[in-house]
Here is the input.
Amino acid sequence: MICSGIGTKRGAVVGLFIKKTEKIAYDVENQKPVLRCSICTGEQVAGFQNVHTGGFEEVMLVRNATEIETFKKRYGIVGELTKIY
Here is the structure.
């Protein structure tokens, strides 16, 4: 399929159903990415902890390892996430 619509280059092939993950910026100096884990239920929530106040900003519920990888790709995080309880 050839498309020359708005937002595409003239003559570029447009793939259907391709989901691009756009990296979202976060405040690296004041926030660190963490997993908040419940001791009782085992529920995990990915988000950012303020390094100065200890406050937690919830981003997404995590049910499996794939969702952790999605969170890391979305925010450009490399390495393991710290778990807080």
Observations:
- Helices lie at 65-75.
